[in-house]
Amino acid sequence: LGAAAVLKRWIAEWAYSRSLVRTSSPCEIISWVELRCSDRLTEPAVVGLFKPVLLLPKHALETLSSRQIEAVIAHETWHVRRRDNLAALLHTWVQILFWFHPLVWKIGGKLVQEREHACDEGALQDGCDPATYAETLLCICRRSVASRHSCAAGATGGDLSARIRAIVSARTPSRLVF
Terminal CA-to-CA distance of the chain, rounded, Å? Predict the structure, then answer.
């Protein structure tokens, strides 16, 4: 029953994510990843595994500056580059199989935090201004306090205060080697 409940939740989130893509409209922004806009969305997100789609909320295009939109796109394209949705799907299957183990859920939360930190670092390496990037993150999080979807890599995952501290402290990320 526990595994069925976790699977049912994931299927519902996946169906909702797909409906967001179907009801969205193309954006007029050029990017190497497909960009679409939605008025049903409160935070930017990447949906899909094999043909990822970057969904932007329409309010973000109206309220954010062009540099802030570039920062959002830089962050979200790092989710695509890193194949974070695939990693999240694999962990979801682990959660379905081992739904009863609290360590699996704790690891899931830690994975979300680390994915967000890695994409923040990638966006900063791509040349985003740390102050502008942190301000953008705060603007987006103000609008999307309770809208986290598990089937989409989004901007508000992880510990927000830790992310902001890391961004503005200008710490250089350590490179992982095999």
Answer: 39
The amino acid that residue 25 corresponds to is: S
- Residue 150 CA to its chain's centroid (Å): 9
pLDDT digits (tens, 9 = 90+) for 21-63: 999 999 888 888 999 999 998 889 999 988 999 999 988 888 8
The amino acid that residue 87 corresponds to is A
- Rounded Cα distance, 150 and 92, in Å: 9
140 and 156 Cβ atoms separated by less than 8 Å: yes
DSSP track, 102-168: HHHHHHHHHHHHHHHHHHHHHHHHTT--HHHHHHHHHHHHHH-TT---TTSEETT-S-HHHHHHHHH
14 SS3 class: helix
The total of other beta-carbon atoms located within 10 Å of residue 71's CB is 28
pTM: 0.79
SS3 34: strand
Q: Is the four-CA dihedral 28, 31, 33, 38 of positive or negative sign?
A: negative
| pLDDT of 144 over the 70 cut | no
How high is the pLDDT of residue 146? Answer: 45
Tell me which H or E stretch contains 94: helix 84-97
Which tokens go with 127? 């040349």
